[in-house]
Amino acid sequence: MLDGVEYRIDSVEGGSSAVLEVVDGPSVALAEGLGRTPWTVRTHDRAYTFDRTLDRWTEQRLVVRGRSMGAVRQAGRSGRHAEAELPEVPDPVAVFVMALVLDMWRAHTR
Q: N or C end of the chain: which has fewer CB within 10 A?
């Protein structure tokens, strides 16, 4: 729940995509290409592209027109904590991105 709104994340297409939706309401965002680089989160009016370098699995960068504009980084060595700097990304979408990145890290360490 964020700002009094309850959200749900549903995984689709074998885990390569996910949807953020308001419970009993509309879809807010769609993530595609999870686990690959780059991957994208689309809202009704924007698209956010994320990538990583081969040697930096612990950092997913927000890329706008070829420039790094923010990131989600691993905080600590366990892969269970993250810190994010995602300017101009709405809070529900930023939390969605963080949840997806944590899930990718967990899957990568299995």
A: C
Taking only the tens place, the pLDDT of each residue in 42-99 is 999 999 999 987 666 789 999 998 899 999 998 877 667 889 999 999 999 999 999 9
- Specify the pTM: 0.91
Domain-by-domain residue ranges, the chain? 7-109
Cβ contact 42:36 at 8 Å: no
DSSP states along 38-66: SEEEEESS-EEEEE--TT-TTEEEEEETT
Structure tokens at 103: 């899930």
Instruction: Check: CB of residue 51 under 8 Å from CB of residue 61.
Output: yes
In whole angstroms, how far apart are CA 40 and each of 16, 76, 103?
11, 25, 15
Both tokens assigned to 60: 């997913």
